[in-house]
Amino acid sequence: MSITDKTADATWDIAQVARMSGVTSRTLRHYDDVGLLTPAWTGADGRRHYGEPELLRLQHILVLRELGTGLDRIGRIVDADDQATVIALMRDHLSGLTAERDRYARLAATVARTIDSLERGKTMSPDHIFDGFDHEQYEPEARERWGDAAVDSSNAKWEGLGKDGQQRHLDTHREVVEALGAAKRVGLAAESPEVQEVVARHYEWVSLFWTPTRETYTGLTQMYVDDERFRRNYDEVAPGAAALLRDAAAIWADEHL
Q1: How many structural domains compose the chain?
Q2: Which residue of 80, 183, 235, 248 pairs with 188 in a disulfide if CB–CB is 3.0 to 4.6 A?
Q3: What crossing angle do the helices spanning 241-256 and 193-206 adopt, rounded to 10°?
Q4: For residue range 198-255, what is the model confidence (pLDDT) as tens digits?
Q5: Is residue 247 situated within a structural domain?
Q6: With the CA atoms of 137, 236, 202 and 192 taken in that order, what torsion angle do they form, in degrees rounded to the nearest 10?
Q7: 39: containing domain
Q8: Distance CA 219, CA 246 (A)
Q9: 51, 107: one domain
């Protein structure tokens, strides 16, 4: 039942709100306990009841939660007394959700095209294969880690490669990852000539954008292990491939850098 199905002073009990919102009754009780969402009134039987203001507040909470906001910050935002502030915040949330909607729509279209291509035996261009993916999601972190100048320089070099050069660069990295995986599966040691050759190729691949020192290169390969997002790129071929690269890079760097 929607808000418009009842009068303005109507209320819904906790079970109805849970059903309408998809939030469990247990979560609603928790929100009450921590002061995030207080019901309009509580019956003699202990059942919580919510009016339209509480439903709108819950909507605001759920939007913020979908955007990854912590409960403490959610509380500060929804407790804002200034309606203009609340509306401005909601407009920001709407912009974020709209952007995500558009991105997922592009991803859905990409997947649909891929299914169609596979079924018809057609080929797809790299632009179409990766349409909708966020290639810049790590840029803010990179700027914080290495500085604006380094990131701007890398971006310029990447753009300068052109589509064919960019694809060759991606292919080279895939070959490095697969070679590391193969080495890990057959049990080659980090100091083996085969693995050291892969590291040399990896360093050359990295150096297309910047020239790492011994410290920065070993730090980079350590990050591949420490950061699950990067580790997954290497370990998807063979578990432990990222650690093998790190260990081999330390040996290679001691000799060549």
Answers
A1: 3
A2: 183
A3: 80
A4: 999 999 988 887 788 888 889 889 988 988 877 887 887 888 999 999 999 999 999 9
A5: yes
A6: 160
A7: 3-79
A8: 9
A9: no
